[in-house]
Design brief:
200 residues; elongated
Length: 200
């Protein structure tokens, strides 16, 4: 089911529009303030009715811009108070001590959050370290499976299960983590096993 909705799309568009309006209004305010400072310096140098009228006119324009900014800031704050759906990633481990074990990942891809970006090649990486070898060394392992590139703006569960994985997540490797890999960007690193014990 799609995470996006017409209401959330409207909020995002409105935030962009109000932000653009606020940037333009702020630039206008700064120009008007500079004009007032210049006119004030002329009045301080030599006061005249004409200069005072111009100063009063531009001072009123500054106040107008400040009022517009206040309205836009209020609108932006109201829009920012709307909580948009965020990306969520959770891992789960099944049958860690059986002949066939599995790791699943449930992903919610929100188009309003770029922590996870759907519609592209995404690998789920599982890595373990710390297994003692007979010669006294320490071994590690890494395996991965892929999320379909068609997955985006949705919630889905994906997984892998095998007898080979069972021997990796049975506590033989004291530390096992899972994460997502998009391009060269690793994210949502999650401990699966810590000190030989499942933690999810």
């Amino acid at each position: 089911m799609s995470v996006s909705t017409p209401y959330f799309d409207f909020i995002v568009r409105s935030k962009d529009e109000v932000t653009t309006e606020l940037e333009a209004s702020t630039a206008q305010l700064e120009r008007r303030q500079a004009k007032v400072e210049y006119l004030q310096s002329l009045v301080d140098e030599r006061s005249s009715n004409q200069r005072l009228k111009r100063l009063a006119k531009w001072t009123a324009l500054v106040e107008e811009s400040e009022a517009t900014n206040d309205v836009l800031i209020g609108r932006l704050n109201t829009l920012n108070d709307v909580e948009l759906p965020k990306d969520e990633v959770t891992f789960s481990l099944s049958n860690p001590t059986d002949d066939i074990s599995g790791i699943q990942v449930t992903i919610t891809d929100s188009p309003y959050d770029d922590s996870f970006v759907g519609g592209q090649r995404t690998a789920v990486t599982i890595a373990g370290t710390g297994k003692r070898k007979r010669n006294g060394g320490v071994s590690s392992f890494g395996t991965r499976f892929y999320i379909p590139e068609t997955f985006e703006d949705d919630t889905g569960t994906f997984g892998i299960a095998s007898s080979k994985l069972a021997s990796k997540v049975d506590g033989s490797y004291p530390d096992v983590t899972a994460s997502l890999l998009q391009g060269s960007q690793q994210s949502f690193v999650t401990d699966i096993i810590t000190d030989g014990q499942p933690v999810i």
